[in-house]
Specification:
The structure holds 2 protein chains of 2 kinds.
Chain A lengths: L1 H8 L11 H27 L6 H35 L6 H13 L2 H12 L4 H8 L11 H25 L3 H10 L3 H29 L3 H6 L8 H10 L4 H29 L17 H29 L9 H37 L3 H13 L5 H12 L9 H39 L3 H30 L2 H6 L7 H10 L3 H32 L1
Chain B lengths: L1 E10 L2 E9 L4 E5 L6 H9 L6 E6 L2 E2 L10 E4 L11 H6 L10 H13 L15 H15 L3 E5 L7 H18 L2 E5 L12 E6 L2 E4 L1
Parallel strand pairs in B: 3-8, 3-9, 6-7, 7-8
Antiparallel strand pairs in B: 1-2, 1-4, 4-5, 9-10
Helix pairs in contact in B: 3-4, 4-5
Classes of the chains: A mainly alpha, B alpha/beta.
């Protein structure tokens, strides 16, 4: 009662003298980057020399939304089928393999996946060869809508399966016991237990997937195949890179930021309801696991998932491994260096910025200024709504009058990637910062441990591990980024994803696969490191 | 003397209004139901909860304008009294220098304090390697080196078994007699502090009732 009341009014008051300046500095950098980009867009759009025609904009919007909607429906269907099959087949022998492939699909850089899809479904891919062996003449069908849909389902169905799987696992074991006791038939189990859980999660998942597909860049750029299948994101890129049409790029980018902003707000609203359940972690025995029909359906679904998700990965391995010698070329070494020059500072900026902002929100909260704290949190999450290409376009046109944008390329790529990964970093670091404050804030304040000493003695050791995880994940995302890197990268500064894209475009698929292997290895190593640190952190308490 | 005079704390669903005088060098035990406001009172004296009205003085000095670390007191919480990533010796050392830049003499003082609470030689251990009772002993050692004249103990041994609890209260009693400290301590049952407490008051619904 008294204690609870004290907590809601003034959460542990022990943070009044934690330095707010790291957070203020991070906030200033975020605002400066976003402000520069916005100013650039406004100025360029204001020129109005070549405003795009309305029917052109509508066409772009229509196709962008159409492919995103179709991708979302397919991803939700496939993801739900896989989640249900995994929930029912707790002893499926391929389960560990499928779980690994699902995780892989979520973390692999999109351009690596695109390469794998080309290697399987492309003109000279495995599927075409198999069809040819059967005497069926292969036709070119991948580039355009089919390629975009395949890539988007590859990226997002695993994400949906993970979200829905966690929700299904949160059904209490008592409910399953009751269902078995009452002898519910499979159809009733689905209607009475699974469906309500899925229905609760679907709006949030749908909004998230739609947003991701709406702003997808690498897949559409590499697999889109022409102006008829361009999305806003790709149109902005092409307007700037190939036609130097700043006015058009600015207007399209502004439209996209507006649309994604609304979508992100919807996703956030829908996601909040979805995130209220916790997985119990106990695999319950479901009464419908015995149904023979469902057993065959589930096995088919799981096998198809393993094949669909596994074959592009295998194709990259199969094409890349024999070509590993090509990695000795100087271009690869330079691209590796460029990638590290981007990923390491971006990871550092995102993780330290996340720490600074977390300290700031905590200080604001304990000073009773919850509104300001919420503003900082929502603002950071809002970075997710700014598409990287639109942001890059803004920076590009803003920098152009004062300096050569390509000379500032590395700095701009770092800034865009740090900003894009900041929400993830904050989400990882903030709970640890809050926990450190709730547990030890009063102790620190009663002992007079303040300022830098407090950061060194209290927060740094307690937050070190989540901070390291945030760094690894932010660096991994930045390593795989094709958006900003393609935008600002030129002959002089080519990162691994850009090199991969260039080789893919030049039909040097085998060499591209070798680069993809190198890139995937780096990214997976970072994610493995992060997973290891998280597990040790959890075990340590 | 610690003088708490109509110290009022207001929350949306709860009001505390405390008056209590603890003579110099006395040990005052606070009993009462959980949720009755013992912790809130100690938090207010320590500076973690801000009263809306009333007076709070110790030896005639007004404590209310002072930030927590500047108040002439040491506080022991129910839990989380030690930083888990610092050794026992370092946790004690924080009481000597909040920046933890310790001279040789200060290190020796911290070690001596650990000796005094019966933890000689355990200085290099981290809290995770100590038992619950040992952890509270480390926190008591820190109170010793801080040499503040007023000690606030918030059910510090509630998590320990009764025998150990008795032993710890004996240790506190010896410590406070040696340093002539004034002690305010919340407890579960009066038996815990029989023969040790100079006065026992009940706190219920945010008010002090002298027995």
């Amino acid at each position: 009662m008294a204690r609870g009341a004290a907590l809601t009014i003034a959460p542990p008051a022990g943070h009044r003298r934690v330095l707010p300046w790291p957070g203020l500095l991070a906030l200033a950098v975020v605002v400066a980057v976003l402000g520069t980009a916005a100013a650039g867009l406004v100025a360029a759009a204001g020129h109005g020399a070549s405003l795009p025609r309305l029917d052109y904009v509508f066409g772009l919007l229509r196709f962008t939304a159409f492919q995103a909607a179709l991708s979302t429906v397919l991803s939700l269907l496939a993801g739900a089928l896989v989640a249900l099959a995994l929930a029912r087949r707790t002893r499926f022998p391929g389960r560990p393999l499928l779980t690994a492939v699902l995780n892989l699909a979520i973390v692999l850089p999109s351009i690596v996946v695109v390469l794998g899809i080309v290697a399987v479904f492309g003109r000279a891919g495995w599927l075409a060869e198999a069809l040819r062996a059967l005497g069926l003449g292969p036709r070119s069908w991948l580039y355009g809508l089919p390629g975009i849909l395949i890539a988007h389902v590859f990226f997002n169905a695993p994400l949906v399966a993970r979200i829905l799987g966690a929700a299904l696992a949160s059904v209490p074991a008592d409910e399953w016991r009751l269902a078995r006791h009452l002898g519910l038939p499979p159809a009733a189990v689905f209607r009475l237990i699974d469906l309500p859980v899925l229905a609760r999660e679907l709006p949030g998942a749908a909004a998230l997937v739609f947003l991701l597909c709406f702003t997808s860049f690498a897949a559409v750029l590499a697999l889109g195949g022409g102006p008829g299948t361009a999305t806003l994101e790709v149109a902005v890129y092409e307007a700037l890179r190939f036609e130097a049409d700043f006015g058009r790029a600015a207007v399209l980018a502004a439209i996209q930021i507006g649309v994604t902003g609304v979508l992100a707000a919807l996703a956030l609203g829908a996601g909040r309801r979805a995130a209220t359940t916790l997985p119990s972690g106990v695999a319950a025995v479901r009464p419908d696991a015995e149904s023979a029909t469902l057993r065959w359906l589930d096995r088919t679904v799981l096998l198809a998932a393993v094949l669909f998700l596994g074959s592009p990965v295998l194709a990259v391995l199969g094409k890349g491994l024999p070509e590993l010698a090509s990695l000795a070329r100087p271009a690869v070494g330079e691209a590796l260096r460029a990638s590290l020059v981007v990923a390491i500072p971006a990871g550092l900026l995102a993780s330290l910025g996340g720490l600074g902002l977390s300290l700031l929100t905590r200080t604001l909260d304990s000073a009773g200024r919850h509104g300001a704290a919420r503003l900082v949190r929502t603002g950071t999450l809002g970075a997710l709504a700014v598409p990287p290409i639109a942001l890059s376009a803004g920076l590009f046109v803003a920098l152009r009058p004062v300096a050569d944008p390509f000379a500032l390329g590395p700095a701009a790529i770092i800034a865009v990637n740090a900003l894009m990964t900041l929400p993830f970093a904050m989400r990882l670091v903030e709970p640890a910062v809050l926990r450190a404050g709730a547990r030890y804030g009063r102790l620190a304040e009663s002992l007079g441990v303040t300022g830098l000493a407090r950061l060194r003695l209290v927060e740094a050791p307690l937050v070190a591990q989540p901070l390291g995880v945030a760094f690894a994940i932010a660096a991994a995302f930045s390593l795989g980024d094709l958006g900003a890197a393609a935008f600002f990268g030129t002959g002089g500064f080519v990162t691994l994803p850009v090199l991969l894209y260039q080789r893919l475009g030049a039909y040097r698929t085998d060499e591209a696969a070798a680069v993809a292997l190198l890139l995937a290895t780096l990214v997976l190593a970072l994610f493995a490191l992060a997973a290891l640190a998280t597990r040790r952190h959890r075990e340590a308490g | 003397m610690l003088d708490i005079d109509r110290l009022t704390l207001r929350y949306p669903d709860w009001v505390g209004d405390y008056s209590l005088r603890v003579p110099e060098g006395a040990l005052a035990a606070l009993r009462g139901p959980s949720g009755g406001g013992k912790t809130t009172l100690l938090n207010a004296v320590a500076g973690f909860a801000t009263p809306v009205s009333g007076r709070l003085t110790f030896r005639g000095q007004d404590l209310l304008p002072l930030p927590p670390a500047a108040r002439p007191l040491s506080i022991l919480f129910q839990e989380h009294n030690l930083f888990p990533h610092l050794t026992a010796a370092e946790n004690v050392g924080l009481g000597l220098d909040p920046r933890l830049r310790l001279s040789t003499a200060q290190r020796a003082e911290a070690a001596a304090a650990l000796d005094a609470v019966g933890l000689g030689g355990l200085g290099p251990r981290r809290p995770g390697e100590l038992s619950g009772g040992q952890r509270q002993r480390v926190a008591l050692a820190r109170i010793l080196v801080r040499r503040r004249p007023l000690w606030l103990l918030d059910e510090p041994f509630g998590a320990l078994d009764p025998g150990l609890r008795c032993e710890m209260i004996g240790l506190v009693d010896a410590m406070r007699r040696e340093q002539r400290a004034t002690v305010v301590m919340s407890i579960h049952t009066p038996e815990e502090v029989a023969g040790v407490a100079d006065m026992t008051v009940t706190i219920e619904s945010g008010r002090v009732r002298t027995d």
